[in-house]
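dumping this here before i forget
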Amino acid sequence: MKKNILVVMFFVFSLIGCGKKEKPKPPLPHVDIQIAHSYDVPYVFDYPGIVQGVVDYPVIPRVSGAIFKQNYTEGTYVKKDAILYQIDPRPFQYNLNSFQGQLVKDQAAMENYKIIWERYKTLYKTNAVSLQDVETALINYKTAQGNVKTDIANINQEKLNLEYCQVRAPADGYIAERQVTVGDMVTAFQTQLNVINSVNNMYILFSMPENDRLTIEQGMIESKIHVPTSYKFRIDVELADGSVMQNAGYVEFADTRISLKNGVWNLRGYVDNKDLRNKLLAGQFVHVYLHGAKFSNAFAIPQIAVFRDDNGPFVYILDTKNQVQKKYVTTGKMVKDLWIINSGIESGDRLIVDGGVKVSLGETVVVDKIIDTANEVKDVVITESSSPPVVASESPQPTVKSTIPKKANNYKL
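structure:
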């Protein structure tokens, strides 16, 4: 009996002893951190655009009449001054013949009035005619001279009209689809017969939203953004199939005012079509990438390191004891998978860039990887690397991921 009691007591005390053991603590979170440093971050603006020929000339007649003949094939290349249309010349030829006949008549009248005037001058010396008769004869002679000059001007005008009956190409280029057919009546300086598109020199028309323009202007005032002089951005052109032509041209014009129609800032790029592998055509829709802008001494961190609560965006940082702290930041432009931070971060801050979703404020963490760009804040370049612009402890050169698709590497001009 005593033996059974002792066994029961042993089990009771064993259970009591087990209940006093402490529960094991959960493992500390593991994170990767990046040491914050500022550097010049390149930024690429991109907008849709439309191609336009530098010499997109409308073909417009200078005389009115009926189209007599068409001398070209639509869609072909034509040289400057090539005859495109023939307007019926017969009405102008008849007018020319009429003015030439009138000239002969007026020249005879002028000779007659000249003889009368010279005769009256002689008779006036002998008092055979009055001074009034001499002056009248002179007036008639000068009037006849004026009529002859008018006839000559009319003849020259009709000769010019006959020349204008041949509608010539105003420039070299490809001629578009015709707007009129043989037999149609056209009006001088009004009817558009066709359009000639230039071949080599092309414009790309595009617009920058007002917000982007103000970002640039304010950044330049605060010396936070650098752009090329007079906004001469270098441009890449992306086609409809996704292929990109690098270094296709540059921005050659920026408007002096904001468009009253849609509140955007109109710009124009220039492209030399001869140097492009895929030739651009007028009316073609493309995507334009503007290179040359950079954020000066800016902080660019991975987007996954930025969180948001009711008070706004923030980042997690570690203090000297590896405890998690929170800093609210002001975000700016996105550069692919990076976020420009306008304020809130200081150089040397240890930012949690991986594992931030599993930490809590004030919690101690274990650092697996430290990324430091302290020695690589200069000569930042745009590459196609998929990694963010941070470097591991080996300190390779940081990179900024370009917004240009990878197909751009297929074109090296």
